[in-house]
């Protein structure tokens, strides 16, 4: 985005500001460079990105299979959004604060979450929310509320004069909420160390991006808030990573917060409870598969002689092994005790709650004797 | 006006979810001011399919997919209803209603009062609520008491297909704002036959589902299913339970409940919401205020715990079941 003073327009108006939204892409859908290879994208880095993306996909497939076989609850797939997850995962430094939304398992895996915990969360077990870096916030289901928490966390870092920063994520639908506007607004007003990354996967359940909002890009929502906005190809992990690097630099140079719109596509259903064939055509989905981020990076790696069939098979096997082991751990868990619903309700147990706990104990007795 | 395929006064046999659809359909057909708005209500027909087919039939001017913004949905409905429309706004799950509540509390609920009758908000805010469908976090809470606490609102909860049909028609025609909470656990659980004839059921009144002389069981929404099962089980033991479906949580028809309790002398209230400060507490308080001398035993409440609704692996420990109700009845019957 560039702001510039300029001369009188044809209509005789004097523009006070104009804006431009930049688009970043390194790799097109055929896996070919669209601009010179960036310095950070070493052979090792590229291979690493690819491996994380495949791991995310294998995990995702397994999670869906678990739901379909009644071993897990409703699950939001990240199929087609692996580059998004992985670029954020790589860009996050240990001491940063990550404030995710519910579709971010790929990033969580890179953030050190135990895979079996992620399964537990979607399997309806509170213990799934226990891992991860201690400063990170848990998954967020109510849309857009996380952005306000991220702004708060960023304000805290600023007040405490820490030099880490906050990265948060949201879907395209979520950008319609007041919480989103309000957070960007305060990020601009207070110059917060905040990076907001929009996963524009084109749909909010059935509602397509075009009827969510009339603006040409979602990135331009930054302009009104006085922060930087940029749009990137979200299926190109280098593009998103580059934008994240620049955003970090802007914060370090006291130039304020950034909104990054990553353009992706949700290849699967919204969640396992959704049926996307009701609102979009097969042709559209077929077309989107041509931009598959995993295939794209694989083509690049192959053209650079960094990847081949053998490596692919080995890595697929490795991924399946890790995922299967996690599934075993998830399924082998002793069920959580019913009284766990009282744990962590308050740090100081209010004695007056004992009566309620007794009611539950009676109930457990009743339920076990009726079997 | 669109062709009246639904307008045949035919006997239908549907689940609760379809009853919601039929009621909206009927009213849209008979009142062109009725519009539907919300997230995914159009092409997708709502995530539960409550608005299925409406967009195809009535077009996008009357069935509007809104941006993902609940405060907007609440506020739009307020504005529309002041200008002669009768919006039926859907909040996808009641757990996401909070941003809309500001508009309900601060504006819809007091528009008539504040403008001394010049403006009003004849709108319905529909939302599926309650647990028991293995949903993720924030999808299963029962928050009817929060809404019932707001003056000027109606809060309505149907428990069967026929009552969903009749009460929703009443809600749409009501000149004031109504929050219509749909117990999603029983959305598809059983069919009931009723006439699709556009006849509304009364708001602000309870329904006595079963008459009995020994004890009064009071409940609403999905818990009615367990309450009726408990009444059947009690009958086998020679206990004759009266079952009352509250249906309109606010304004609350205490008369029906009091008359019943005065006769039976005993009262058990069953609800899914957390126990403290809930609608059950209000009913219990009024029973003790107004028919204390008829009571043969303290009023019992069977309810959820004062905890968060647990993630779904343990939700069945949270929600009232038939044995809980029988245990409470037992306690009540033992007292003399
Ligand atoms: C406040 C709120 N409203 C509604 C929902 C139900 N819901 C869950 S996901 C979703 C769509 C979100 O779309 P988007 O923000 O584009 O993210 P995506 O899921 O596509 O990644 C909706 C409406 C919710 N979780 N929270």
From TrEMBL, chain A:
Key word Transmembrane present: no
Coiled-coil positions: none
Dehydrogenase E1 component domain ranges (all copies): 50-330
GO molecular function: pyruvate dehydrogenase (acetyl-transferring) activity
Cofactor(s) essential for the protein: thiamine diphosphate
NCBIfam families: PDH_E1_alph_x (TIGR03181)
Function: The pyruvate dehydrogenase complex catalyzes the overall conversion of pyruvate to acetyl-CoA and CO(2). It contains multiple copies of three enzymatic components: pyruvate dehydrogenase (E1), dihydrolipoamide acetyltransferase (E2) and lipoamide dehydrogenase (E3).
Protein name: Pyruvate dehydrogenase E1 component subunit alpha
Organism field: Bermanella marisrubri
From TrEMBL, chain B:
Organism: Bermanella marisrubri
Keyword Oxidoreductase in record: yes
Keywords noted in UniProt: Oxidoreductase, Pyruvate, Thiamine pyrophosphate
Cofactors required: thiamine diphosphate
InterPro entries assigned to the protein according to its UniProt record, in alphabetical order: THDP-binding (IPR029061), Transketo_C/PFOR_II (IPR009014), Transketolase-like_Pyr-bd (IPR005475), Transketolase_C (IPR033248)
Protein name (Swiss-Prot/TrEMBL): 2-oxoisovalerate dehydrogenase subunit beta
Highest taxon of source: Bacteria
GO MF term (any one): branched-chain 2-oxo acid dehydrogenase activity
Known function: The branched-chain alpha-keto dehydrogenase complex catalyzes the overall conversion of alpha-keto acids to acyl-CoA and CO(2). It contains multiple copies of three enzymatic components: branched-chain alpha-keto acid decarboxylase (E1), lipoamide acyltransferase (E2) and lipoamide dehydrogenase (E3).
Keyword Transport listed: no
GO biological process assignments: branched-chain amino acid catabolic process; response to nutrient
Pfam families attached to this UniProt entry: Transket_pyr (PF02779), Transketolase_C (PF02780)
E.C. no: 1.2.4.4
Domain Transketolase-like pyrimidine-binding per the UniProt entry, residue ranges: 14-189
């Amino acid at each position: 985005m560039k702001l510039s003073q300029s001369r009188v327009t044809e209509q005789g108006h004097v523009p006070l500001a104009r804006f431009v939204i930049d688009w970043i892409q390194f790799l097109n859908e055929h896996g070919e460079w669209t601009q010179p290879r960036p310095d950070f994208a070493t052979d090792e880095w590229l291979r690493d990105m690819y491996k994380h993306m495949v791991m995310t996909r294998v995990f995702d497939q397994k999670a869906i299979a678990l739901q379909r076989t009644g071993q897990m609850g409703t699950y939001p797939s990240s199929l087609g959004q692996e580059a998004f997850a992985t670029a954020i995962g790589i860009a996050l430094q240990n001491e940063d604060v990550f404030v995710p939304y519910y579709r971010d398992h790929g990033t969580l895996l890179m953030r050190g979450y135990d895979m079996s915990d992620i399964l537990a969360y979607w399997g309806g077990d509170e213990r799934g929310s226990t891992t991860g870096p201690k400063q990170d916030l848990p998954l967020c289901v109510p849309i857009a509320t996380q952005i306000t928490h991220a702004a708060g966390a960023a304000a805290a870092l600023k007040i405490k004069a820490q030099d880490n920063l906050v990265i948060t994520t949201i879907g395209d639908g979520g950008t319609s909420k007041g919480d989103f506007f309000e957070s960007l607004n305060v990020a601009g007003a207070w110059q917060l160390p905040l990076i907001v990354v929009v996963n524009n996967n084109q749909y909010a359940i059935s509602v397509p991006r075009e009827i969510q909002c009339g603006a040409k890009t979602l990135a331009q929502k930054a302009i009104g808030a006085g922060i930087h906005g940029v749009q990137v190809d979200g299926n190109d992990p280098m593009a998103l990573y580059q934008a994240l690097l620049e955003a970090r630099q802007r914060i370090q140079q006291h130039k304020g917060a950034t909104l990054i719109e990553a353009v992706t596509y949700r290849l699967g259903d919204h969640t396992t409870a959704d049926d996307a064939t009701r609102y979009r055509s097969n042709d559209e989905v077929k077309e989107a598969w041509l931009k598959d981020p995993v295939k794209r990076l694989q083509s690049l790696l192959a053209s650079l002689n960094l990847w081949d069939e053998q490596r692919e098979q080995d890595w697929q096997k490795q991924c399946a092994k890790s995922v299967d082991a996690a599934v075993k751990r998830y399924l082998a868990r002793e069920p959580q005790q019913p009284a766990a619903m009282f744990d962590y309700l308050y740090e100081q147990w209010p004695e007056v709650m004992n009566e309620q706990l007794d009611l539950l104990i009676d109930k457990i007795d009743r339920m076990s004797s009726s079997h | 006006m669109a062709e009246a395929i639904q307008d045949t006064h035919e006997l239908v046999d549907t689940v609760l979810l379809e009853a919601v659809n039929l009621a909206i359909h009927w009213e849209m057909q008979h009142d062109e001011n009725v519009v539907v708005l919300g997230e995914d209500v159009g092409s997708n027909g709502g995530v539960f399919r409550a608005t299925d087919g409406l967009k195809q039939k009535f077009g996008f001017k009357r069935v509007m997919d809104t941006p993902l913004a609940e405060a907007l949905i609440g506020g739009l409905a307020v504005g529309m209803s002041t200008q002669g429309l009768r919006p039926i706004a859907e909040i996808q799950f009641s757990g996401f209603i909070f941003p809309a509540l500001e508009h309900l509390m601060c504006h819809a609920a007091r528009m008539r009062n504040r403008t001394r009758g010049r403006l009003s908000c004849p709108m319905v805010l529909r939302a599926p609520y309650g647990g028991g469908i293995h949903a993720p976090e924030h999808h299963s809470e029962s928050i009817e008491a929060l809404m019932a606490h707001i003056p000027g609102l109606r809060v309505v909860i149907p428990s069967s297909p026929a009552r969903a049909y009749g009460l929703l028609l009443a809600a749409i025609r009501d000149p004031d704002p109504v929050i219509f909470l749909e117990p999603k656990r029983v959305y598809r659980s059983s069919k009931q036959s009723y006439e699709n004839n556009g006849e509304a059921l009364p708001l602000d009144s309870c329904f006595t589902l079963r008459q009995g002389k020994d004890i009064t069981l009071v409940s609403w929404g999905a818990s009615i299913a367990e309450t009726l099962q408990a009444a059947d089980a009690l009958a086998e033991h020679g206990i004759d339970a009266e079952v009352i479906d509250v249906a309109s949580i606010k304004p609350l028809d205490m008369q029906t409940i009091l008359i019943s309790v005065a006769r039976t002398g005993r009262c058990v209230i069953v609800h899914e919401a957390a126990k403290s400060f809930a609608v059950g507490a209000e009913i219990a308080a009024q029973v003790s205020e107004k028919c204390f001398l008829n009571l043969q035993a303290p009023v019992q409440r069977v309810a959820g715990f004062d905890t968060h609704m647990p993630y779904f692996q343990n939700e069945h420990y949270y929600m009232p079941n038939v044995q809980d109700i029988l245990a409470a009845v037992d306690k009540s019957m033992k007292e003399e």
